[in-house]
């Protein structure tokens, strides 16, 4: 009976996807055997609906055969990676949105009760941060932090299974949702943890691939791209940011895979928004409506260049404070002890402090504290001139949607220069304080918003100096401070992370390509300032502090290599050697030379014991060989394999 | 007297840029010595205005010192590369524009004289093509063709000095100008030769760098990026296209250099247009004005995907014809003999045939032949529905500028489907015919326009099927055929060149980011179709036909290595060895061991004589070493140096 089913299925399969089956049979007989064994196991004679189940399985196999003939498993996995990550991103955004709305509703309901409002404002984020810390640390301690430095290390070839486990995925999703729901008081973002999240999804799909066809895809680079793409719905900058932030040497062969996965992710993310009736069609996330006829005058390019230099300088100040704070919480006895034992309490306390400072009836009204992260960015990218609007606030025409957000920046007619200045000064150290929180959180989005505020300040200043625009020739156009905010956001985030791709990110985020050229200029200049004197980037600094493994000398590994020394002649295939030995033992009378029976393969590259692991790593990856022969004066000292290189690297720490 | 001037200058220099001077003195004393010698030579006692000249030189040195303290020479060279290439591009466009205008003026003046118009239409491009061929072949035969395959080979590390000479630059500039001035009848483009041009400029600046500070920059990758960027004013896609089309492994370290040079080039190119009053400010080259509120409905994404698949299929058809034509002109005796001896005649004849076929009073009126390349693209990207317009042509409101270009596509009320169909069928083989011309010309732009026409046809068809737009919910929006033209252009050019970056190029070219997501999708699908079964791309096909050098086995080189065999212990620095020998010869009584006097450096990597040049090349580039030791059983067989690897590769041809 069982025999019969199997044969039938095999026939159906052969008919449906003969070519695919053949390929499969040739390449991984082992996987097929496992499958058949499972099938046999499942078809226990006592199980019900045997015929129906067999037919379903048959159909599934047919579909699989057809799919396999259209494209390889790799591409389906890449597509699935994009869709899955986008789904996680979308539903996380949905949850965060609801939680933020609940907070805002509660706060507004308590209008008139100042104390209750204060408690609502401070305890809500404090409890969410405590929950986030507790949850992530109890389920998987590795889920705290941004995760991007670890992803970089993994992309270097290091195995860090703890960082790719399902429990980590779960902890990170819940923890990150809580962190983001704490809102703009805590001022933390989503991007870097999401890159980590999508890497975990990628690793999971990789394992699935292994079980299906017995080999890995290496989807980690693509996964990093998908993370950014499905956070912002920006596929192009997603790919470029992930290359810049995580790789040192990029194979152009991976380009298409990355783009495919990122495009799937971004498209799914945006289509979900359409399906949820947030948007009518696939649109940019922070759509702006700058004038396209005359977005800026040519002389303004100089101001954009100066803005880039300014952003670079502020980025150096920020990185200095950031590194100092990271050092402080490690060296200060009180804080480090608290972080070792009472993480949740520390999180709650810091969130409470942040809430107190940003309380809208206190200092918060000078920092537009009522706006959420998204609203902050949307308001800063506004094309209107706030200073002019705030002066004519009495004769204001009724506005709707995002166009009223600027009112938060000018409470009771306060000058916007004052509020923007307070925002910039306060948020710098508040962000540094928030970055010490031991919970899943990213720093890209806050940095991006901070940069937008710098740009806005410059833009408003320029608009104040030239109220009728910079004339050149007959026509005139007003200064658009939103354009400066755009360039500032890209330049500052580019300078902090040492990347150029934020210039493309703002283009995709806003759907506004009028300012592409000056933005790119500002980003390049900011990068030049930030990178001078070989300062580490944000992710470098985090890697250094976390003492993530680096590449030490090979000398530390060779001790485990063979003690005896023999001249290396070449290598012989195991199968050939076995058949040779078989012949010998079968009693053929003439004792042949090894070289007569087998073809001795020459060893193309020897490496000496004095070389570093970095060199071995480089040579292995460029030659694509799984092992290298370590020789000393031609004598074999040992063999170093790829897993050894990777594993030994993990035991040593950064010494930069 | 001379002494005195020199000292004074040295003092001034020290005061102005002491730090820079110190660095300079330490690093390249030789260059400084050469400079001083030149100075001495110049200051002949008979020369006039010695004081004034000395002061000028002093000032130049001071400025150089200050510049050197701001950034390294490399960055100035990159900037200069961008500016120079943009200048060439701009003035070439200016010349081509004037020549095209002259042709159009002459043609219109001859209105009524059909025969004279025919002669004007055919002989003008024929004579220009003849001139282009004659000039380029008499000055530098290597300047013919696109040049991109050669750039790819050079980026692999091969030296091809003929392709980087100044005479080639000159021949290419003049030849390309003539080719482009032949207009849309010949239907050839500018991009690939421009990449070659900017590579030549880059190589020239590289040589300048060598003479200034004694080391090369390796600006070739950046130069390729600048080429695209200053052709289209599109820095981002310039960098990405050059990476995809020319590299196989890209070092992320080069990212910033490439972006800086490309941004300088693009910005200069656009600012020159502002200066020339073509535009009021820095704008996209083919600015479109699609609706940003509702650019397309979500279900239309499916149509974009189908368009991508269609473009992929047509790209395969095109590549098949293209390869066939390349083979034909090599194997057909008549054509190959004519191409060997009468290149100019062949060019003139082909251009005459092309002109005859596209004559506007003949078949040309069904191909919108009167439009120039730029007008063709601008008209195809029009957002209006031509089919609707052509039906209501009697009640047409007066339009201006680009909005009347579509009239060429519907002469005397002909259906636009008919004209677009004729255009697609005719231009396919006309382009294949034009690609056989032995003159400097690119194929990217014609392919781009052809793809736009495919997209336009699909878009117009959809608009015809859904005249009131695809309804979904309450609101409705009309189909925008221009969006399909955009996606089609990107998808077809991406499919032919096997790149993804055209998706970003259309974004930058049109300044329209509403269609980014569906365009990327279409490009990816088109690539998937075009790349299946490992078909070569346009540039691969050209490389194969030109038999550009590939990487042969190392065995062919080792014959020139040392004949004696010695065990390799390590290497010793020349200076140390010299001082050791000096000590020995000075008569110190004890004869020391070499290892006591010098530090013997271990050799990290040995390579065996059986390895291939590709392996040697890979190992050298990943380790960054200038030579490798070739050993056999630990015995030194020879040393293989970087120039040797490169030079030996050049002697062997592709065997794919």
From TrEMBL, chains A, B:
<keyword id="KW-1133">Transmembrane helix</keyword>
<feature type="transmembrane region" description="Helical">
    <location>
        <begin position="415"/>
        <end position="435"/>
    </location>
</feature>
<keyword id="KW-0406">Ion transport</keyword>
<dbReference type="InterPro" id="IPR046342">
    <property type="entry name" value="CBS_dom_sf"/>
</dbReference>
<keyword id="KW-0812">Transmembrane</keyword>
<keyword id="KW-0472">Membrane</keyword>
<dbReference type="Pfam" id="PF00654">
    <property type="entry name" value="Voltage_CLC"/>
</dbReference>
<dbReference type="GO" id="GO:0005886">
    <property type="term" value="C:plasma membrane"/>
</dbReference>
<keyword id="KW-0677">Repeat</keyword>
<feature type="transmembrane region" description="Helical">
    <location>
        <begin position="73"/>
        <end position="94"/>
    </location>
</feature>
<feature type="transmembrane region" description="Helical">
    <location>
        <begin position="296"/>
        <end position="318"/>
    </location>
</feature>
<keyword id="KW-0407">Ion channel</keyword>
<keyword id="KW-0868">Chloride</keyword>
<feature type="transmembrane region" description="Helical">
    <location>
        <begin position="169"/>
        <end position="188"/>
    </location>
</feature>
<keyword id="KW-0813">Transport</keyword>
<feature type="transmembrane region" description="Helical">
    <location>
        <begin position="345"/>
        <end position="363"/>
    </location>
</feature>
<dbReference type="InterPro" id="IPR050970">
    <property type="entry name" value="Cl_channel_volt-gated"/>
</dbReference>
<feature type="transmembrane region" description="Helical">
    <location>
        <begin position="255"/>
        <end position="276"/>
    </location>
</feature>
<dbReference type="GO" id="GO:0034707">
    <property type="term" value="C:chloride channel complex"/>
</dbReference>
<feature type="transmembrane region" description="Helical">
    <location>
        <begin position="220"/>
        <end position="243"/>
    </location>
</feature>
<dbReference type="InterPro" id="IPR001807">
    <property type="entry name" value="ClC"/>
</dbReference>
<keyword id="KW-0869">Chloride channel</keyword>
<keyword id="KW-0129">CBS domain</keyword>
<dbReference type="GO" id="GO:0005247">
    <property type="term" value="F:voltage-gated chloride channel activity"/>
</dbReference>
<dbReference type="InterPro" id="IPR014743">
    <property type="entry name" value="Cl-channel_core"/>
</dbReference>
<protein>
    <submittedName>
        <fullName>Chloride channel K</fullName>
    </submittedName>
</protein>
């Amino acid at each position: 009976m069982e025999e019969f089913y199997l044969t039938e299925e095999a026939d159906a399969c052969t008919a449906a996807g003969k070519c695919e089956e053949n390929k499969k049979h040739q390449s991984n007989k082992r996987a097929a055997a496992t499958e058949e064994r499972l099938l046999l196991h499942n078809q226990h004679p006592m199980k019900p609906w045997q015929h129906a189940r067999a037919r379903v399985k048959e159909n599934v196999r047919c579909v699989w055969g057809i799919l396999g003939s259209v494209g390889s498993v790799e591409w389906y996995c890449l597509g699935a990676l994009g869709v899955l990550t986008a789904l996680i991103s979308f539903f996380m955004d949905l949850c965060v949105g609801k939680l933020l709305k609940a907070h805002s509703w509660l706060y507004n309901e308590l209008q008139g009760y100042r104390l209750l409002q204060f408690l609502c404002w401070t305890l809500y984020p404090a409890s969410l941060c405590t929950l986030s810390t507790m949850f992530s640390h109890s389920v998987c301690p590795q889920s705290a932090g941004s995760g991007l430095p670890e992803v970089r290390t993994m992309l270097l070839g290091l195995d860090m299974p703890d960082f790719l486990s399902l429990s980590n995925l779960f902890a990170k999703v819940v923890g990150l949702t809580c962190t983001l729901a704490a809102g703009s008081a805590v001022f933390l973002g989503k991007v870097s943890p999401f890159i980590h999240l999508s890497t975990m999804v990628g690793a999971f799909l990789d394992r699935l691939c292994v079980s299906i066809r017995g080999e890995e895809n290496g989807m980690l680079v693509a996964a990093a791209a998908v993370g950014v793409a499905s956070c912002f719905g920006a596929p192009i900058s997603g790919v470029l940011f992930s290359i810049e932030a995580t790789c040192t040497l990029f194979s152009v062969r991976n380009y298409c895979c990355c783009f495919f996965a990122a495009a799937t992710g971004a498209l799914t993310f945006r289509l979900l928004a359409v399906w949820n009736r947030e948007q009518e069609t696939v649109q940019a996330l922070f759509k702006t409506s700058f004038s396209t006829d005359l977005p800026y005058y040519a002389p303004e390019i100089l101001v954009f260049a100066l803005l880039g230099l300014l952003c670079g300088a502020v980025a150096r100040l920020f990185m200095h404070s950031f590194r100092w704070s990271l050092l402080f919480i490690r060296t200060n006895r009180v804080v480090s002890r608290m972080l070792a034992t009472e993480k949740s309490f520390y999180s709650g306390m810091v969130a409470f402090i942040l809430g107190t400072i940003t309380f809208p009836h206190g200092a918060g009204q000078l920092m537009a504290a009522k706006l959420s992260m998204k609203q902050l960015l949307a308001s800063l990218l506004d094309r209107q001139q706030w200073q002019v609007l705030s002066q004519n606030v009495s004769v204001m025409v009724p506005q709707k949607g995002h166009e009223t957000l600027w009112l938060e920046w000018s409470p009771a007619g306060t000058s916007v220069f004052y509020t923007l200045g307070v925002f910039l000064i306060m948020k710098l150290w508040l962000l540094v304080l928030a970055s010490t929180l031991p919970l899943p959180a990213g720093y890209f989005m806050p940095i991006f918003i901070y940069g937008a505020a710098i740009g806005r300040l410059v833009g408003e200043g320029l608009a104040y100096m030239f109220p009728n625009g910079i004339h050149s020739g007959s026509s005139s156009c007003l200064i658009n401070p939103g354009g400066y905010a755009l360039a500032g956001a890209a330049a500052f985030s580019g300078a902090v992370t040492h990347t150029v791709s934020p210039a493309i990110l703002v283009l995709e985020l806003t759907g506004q390509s009028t300012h592409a050229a000056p933005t790119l200029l500002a980003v390049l200049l900011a990068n030049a300032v930030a990178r001078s004197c070989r300062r580490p980037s944000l992710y470098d600094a985090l890697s250094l502090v976390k003492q993530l493994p680096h590449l030490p000398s090979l000398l530390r590994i060779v001790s485990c290599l063979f003690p005896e020394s023999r001249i290396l002649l070449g290598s012989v295939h195991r199968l050939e050697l076995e058949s040779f030995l078989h012949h010998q033992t079968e009693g053929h009378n003439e004792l042949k030379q090894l070289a007569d029976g087998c073809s001795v393969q020459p060893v193309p590259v020897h490496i000496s014991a004095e070389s570093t692991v970095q060199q071995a790593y480089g040579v292995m990856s460029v030659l694509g060989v799984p092992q290298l022969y370590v020789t000393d004066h031609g004598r074999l000292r040992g063999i170093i394999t790829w897993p050894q290189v990777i594993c030994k690297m993990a035991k040593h720490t950064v010494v930069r």
